[in-house]
């Protein structure tokens, strides 16, 4: 009927879905306050003055306020020592108003990142990156799934793309996105049951692997690394990349580009997330969801059902 003109993909809007989820969180906040007199609270620790990090931290703080959460932050200079960062973590560990703690990564060179992460009280680890929480995730009984992977699963499930039985290919093997997303997509249960392949810089014949994907996730950190020739017809494509590309004509002097070449890939995919307005806002929404979970854990303890 349309001849050879490809039908463009459905846009999976993280902006819309995150608003829906943040409204659910706001309702949960009211319930916890009425039942238990507790206001869920999130604290963010930001080290250094990277402008992109500052934008995310401000977005998180605004999202907290809109959902009725208490929010706090500690901003340390880029010259802060490991000891000073640890002191900030310990202070929030002990602060009863704070149920969730997020340490913005990456930390400056010379700071032992794992030592900081392991200092976070696992019951307050709303990023889900403490070894205890990553271990439980790998066992298929997560309390806190890392926010970006959790947001990707919600984007899929709430748009009718259940991964069950699908070939899911993830490009990127980071501790905060690729690895935990692989665990979520492969596990038994909601949002899982996919056949998962994880690609990285040493993968041979990358395009051959990605072309086998029913669900393709790009978490590479290189603008437009995924091109149309790497994508199967009808694939669902999730773009995790948030790359700042210089653009003198843009108001801020740069534009955001994903890891996917949107214009060509959207002609081939059946569904695709945009950048901005895709995975980014979902990450923030899931951070609020995890903070609500942390507040519930502070009241009831962890559930021992899994
Ligand atoms: N411990 C830790 N946890 C993180 O989750 C974490 C982190 N460290 N370090 C930095 C990355 C990055 N990140 C983003 C979150 C939201 C947007 C976001 O909302 N982006 C908007 C656009 C924002 C803009 O205009 O710059 C969008 O994609 O539509 C982006 C990036 C979380 N991160």
Automatic annotation (TrEMBL):
Gene3D superfamilies on file: Leucine Dehydrogenase, chain A, domain 1, NAD(P)-binding Rossmann-like Domain
The keyword Magnesium is annotated on this UniProt entry: no
MF term (GO), any: methylenetetrahydrofolate dehydrogenase (NADP+) activity
GO CC, one annotated term: cytosol
SUPFAM superfamilies: Aminoacid dehydrogenase-like, N-terminal domain, NAD(P)-binding Rossmann-fold domains
All residue ranges annotated as the Tetrahydrofolate dehydrogenase/cyclohydrolase catalytic domain in the record: 12-127
Pfam families named among the record's database cross-references: THF_DHG_CYH, THF_DHG_CYH_C
GO biological process, one term: tetrahydrofolate interconversion
Keywords: Hydrolase, Multifunctional enzyme, NADP, One-carbon metabolism, Oxidoreductase
Keyword Cytoplasm: no
Tetrahydrofolate dehydrogenase/cyclohydrolase NAD(P)-binding domain span: 146-296
Recorded metabolic or biological pathway in which this protein acts: One-carbon metabolism; tetrahydrofolate interconversion
Catalysed reactions listed for this entry: (6R)-5,10-methenyltetrahydrofolate + H2O = (6R)-10-formyltetrahydrofolate + H(+)
HAMAP family: THF_DHG_CYH
The protein's assembly and partners: Homodimer.
Identification of the protein by name: Bifunctional protein FolD
């Amino acid at each position: 009927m349309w001849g050879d003109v490809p039908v463009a993909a459905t846009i999976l809007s993280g902006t819309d879905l995150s608003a829906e989820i943040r409204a659910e969180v706001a309702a949960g906040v009211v319930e916890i306050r009425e039942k238990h007199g507790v206001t869920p609270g999130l604290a963010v620790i930001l080290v250094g003055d990277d402008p992109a990090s500052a934008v995310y931290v401000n977005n998180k703080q605004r999202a907290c306020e809109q959902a009725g959460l208490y929010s706090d932050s500690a901003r340390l200079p880029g010259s802060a020592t490991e000891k000073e960062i640890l002191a900030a973590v310990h202070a929030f560990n002990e602060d009863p108003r704070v149920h969730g703690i997020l340490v913005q990564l990456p930390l400056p060179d010379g700071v032992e990142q794992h030592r900081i992460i392991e200092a976070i009280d696992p019951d307050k680890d709303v990023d889900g990156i403490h070894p205890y929480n990553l271990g439980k995730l790998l066992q298929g009984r997560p309390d806190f799934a890392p926010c970006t992977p959790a947001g990707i699963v919600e984007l899929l499930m709430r748009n009718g793309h259940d991964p069950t039985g699908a070939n899911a290919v993830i490009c990127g093997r980071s501790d905060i996105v690729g690895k935990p997303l692989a665990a979520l997509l492969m596990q038994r249960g909601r949002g899982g049951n996919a056949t998962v392949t994880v690609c990285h810089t040493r993968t041979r014949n990358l395009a051959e692997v990605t072309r086998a994907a029913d669900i393709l996730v790009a978490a590479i950190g290189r603008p437009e690394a995924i091109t149309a020739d790497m994508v199967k017809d009808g694939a669902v494509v999730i773009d995790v990349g948030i790359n700042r590309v210089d653009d003198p004509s843009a108001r801020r002097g740069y534009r955001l580009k994903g890891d996917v070449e949107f214009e060509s890939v959207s002609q081939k995919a059946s569904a695709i997330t945009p950048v901005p307005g895709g995975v980014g806002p979902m990450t923030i929404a899931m951070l609020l969801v995890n903070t609500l979970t942390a507040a519930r854990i502070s009241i009831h303890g962890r559930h021992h059902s899994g």
